[in-house]
Structures
1.
Amino acid sequence: MKRGWRWIWCALVFCLLGPMPAPAPLIYTPGEGWSYEPVGAEGRWRRARAKDQLEVAQQAFERGDYGLALKAARRVVRQWPLSDYAPEAQFLIGRCYEARRQDERAFKEYQKFIEQYPKADKFEEALQRQHAIALRFLGGQWFKLWGYIPFFPSMTKTAEMFDKIVRNGPFSPVASEAQLNMGAAYEKARDYDLAVKAYEAAADRYFDRPGVAADALYRAGMAWLKQARTAEYDQSAAGRAIATFTDFLALYPGDPRAAEVQQHIASLKREQARGHFEIARFYEKNRHWAAALIYYNEVLLLDPTSSYADEARRRIEQLKPRVRPPEATAQARP
């Protein structure tokens, strides 16, 4: 039995130490790192000139071999970073990741292209492709862990993408839409303060584009309206919404949304009146007559035609005799 095990061990040692044909799928190239090479085709895709190497990448991309296209395009960028072919190669890297549905990585590669080659011919196209990617994330597409595993959607990260697009080209054809979409992403994240800031920035920066400015101001008002209606009614947000909607009506009275905005203002004022009415009732209940009168009068100023206003007038008349003017109080003192 022991002799049998000895023969087995000898056979294993011979197999491990003896010469065997071994494929080498991983190739290390100085300055390029490790890359996978199919057996029998090691290095055949490499070229001695940047132009020829880029052609290899483009042809591989056209036939859907994105792995080879990535390797060849990366080699152009690393080996010939100052050549006329490097910008096209960097742009192609982004295209490859986008074709492989690795949108976050594609966005970053387009960002490299924009930062490194700001005068390249495809600068505007890179911005448009970044915007298309960000729109997919705005629509609910999930970000991926390590570039492969769907992890979670993130409106905050999406807003940051739109912010980069605007910074890359603040007056490019997609910039105004990206600025508005930044606000939309923050709205989806329920960060209404940042949403309003994004919309207000769009209204200020693109004031010479009436359609964009009007849409931005309307969206800012709606963001304040949503914040006012979250959880407990936010009186300060309601006031900002009314002010923003009022500006919208003053600047764009002919906008198709004007009637809707007027309804929002009326609804907000009615809600403000209700809030002040409840505060007045609280003070009245606790026998703080002067404070109650102040808030009942606020109800009349905010919404004089509401049912709250009718009740406020009645309460004011009943409370007036209980609130003595300062002069009368001073005369009554001994």
Note: The radius of gyration is 34 Å.
2.
Amino acid sequence: MAPRMTFNGIYTPVVTPFNADYSTNDKALEDVLERLIQAGVHGVISGGSTGENYAMTVAERLDVAQKTVQIVTGRVPVIMGTGAMLPADSIALATGAAKMGADALLVATPPYAVPTERENALNTLAIDRAADLPVMLYNYPGRMGVNMGEEFLDRVGRSHNICAIKESSGDINRVHLLARDYPHIQMSCGMDDQALEFFAWGAQSWVCGGSNFLPEEHIALWRACVVEGDFTKGRRIMSAMMPLMRVLEQGGKFVQSIKYGVTFQGIDTGAIRPPLKALNKDDKRGLEQVIRVLKTTIAAIEQEG
């Protein structure tokens, strides 16, 4: 039985840099991971949607995860994303994660199937049994079609491995439900524009795509709220981050924006796999301006202490 895992801090769902022919750019992947570890993130997630998992085969996802584990060498936890339409694929990813020495799994609802709470719980528990690793659940009904509701949480919560839930519904009532009724399942922020509210309700971790290229600034918000308990400072940092949240969430250009943010900060992440296309010039300029202002503003807030 795997030990329970504490999720505390900033967890980056890492981008997958590609070459022009869509093969993995191993050097850029290493550069991204080293940059994140140097900045002080608390864990990395391989094979999430920010890593373009929906456009990769199981073999490719396992390969990238293996390289990630080898590069990270235990300096921070590596969490393996197991989200897939086919349950057998999720199980293959989970067993592969256990074999390669990953630290935990991120387990989502299979998209498109629209399972009942019971069906979804049984699927999650099958993935859990296959790997026997700590699990962070991933609730994202906007992409998966259903919520991980109370019946689901009651069923899966009996497993010792179910440690946390990345809550990405956008429904603040879910935050209240998890904080009050499921305190044994650690709540992790999965809705970037609600990070302050999650922290106010006791969340201690944040899975945030933007930390791929602005890790220090995301850590600054977590530190102000979780470590220092200074929500006045936290509100100022969050306010400075809101323009970024709007850019990332607008018009379905999340992954493209994250990858360009990393490229703009000095590590070329290369091509975006179809069906997505890279940002146009106007979108790039807009994101660049938001990044510049955000960095300057948060640096000034940090300077004041």
Note: The chain has one domain: 9-304.
